[in-house]
Amino acid sequence: LLRPRHALFALGDAASLPIGTERFNLAFMSFVLELMPTAEIATVLAEVMRVLQPGGRLVDVSLSRESPNFATRIYEWGHKRLPHLLDCRPIYARRSLEAAGFEVVEAHRSSILGLPVEIVMGHKPAASSA
After folding, report:
1. Pairing label, strands 115-123, 24-30
2. Which end of the chain has fewer CB atoms within 10 angstroms, the N or the C?
3. H or E stretch covering 50
4. Which of 59-63, 115-119, 126-130 has the lowest average pLDDT?
5. What's the predicted TM-score (pTM) here?
6. Within 10 Å of residue 84's Cβ, how many Cβ atoms?
7. How are strands ordered across the β-sheet holding 103-112?
8. Alpha-carbon torsion 130, 38, 27, 108, what sign?
């Protein structure tokens, strides 16, 4: 169980966080990565890695592309045609965290209105140079 002593909320660009290096032991993102262009996901995760202390954790909740179902295909069809209404799209959350250097310690699947959701917790390796 994580019990933070305080929280910091800051407004900024996720690809260039206005926060010093290794300042936090926990970052939480809920339906954020799937708003980013696919090419920017790695940049955003590198920034999260930078601001986390060694051993720090990232908890990410995202629509999942891992096991698409009928609802996923309908949602993606709608997202392509009405992106201003369906602004996010399913992504490969666990794969993205692993590719960014996070060690995945827990991953769960759930669903919202039939859409697959991944809840992934990864941590920054203790000996990371990021």
Report:
1. unpaired
2. N
3. helix 38-51
4. 126-130
5. 0.86
6. 5
7. 24-30, 52-63, 115-123, 103-112
8. negative
Tokens of 92: 């490969």
Rounded Cα–Cα distance for residues 72 and 38 (Å): 17
Q: Is the pLDDT of residue 129 over 70?
A: no
Hey, how many other C-beta atoms are within 10 angstroms of the C-beta on 50? 16
Beta-bridged to residue 24, according to DSSP, are 52
- pLDDT bucket at 4, cuts 50 / 70 / 90: low
Structural contact between residues 119 and 107, judged by C-beta atoms closer than 8 angstroms? yes
Find the angle CA(124)-CA(100)-CA(96) to the nearest 5 degrees. Answer: 115
Q: What is the mean pLDDT of residues 69-90?
A: 92
Q: How far apart are CA 21 and CA 30, in angstroms?
A: 22
Between CA 90 and CA 79 the distance in angstroms is 10
Q: Is the dihedral of CA 60, 70, 39, 105 positive or negative?
A: positive
pLDDT tens, 6-34?
A: 776 777 888 998 889 999 999 999 999 99
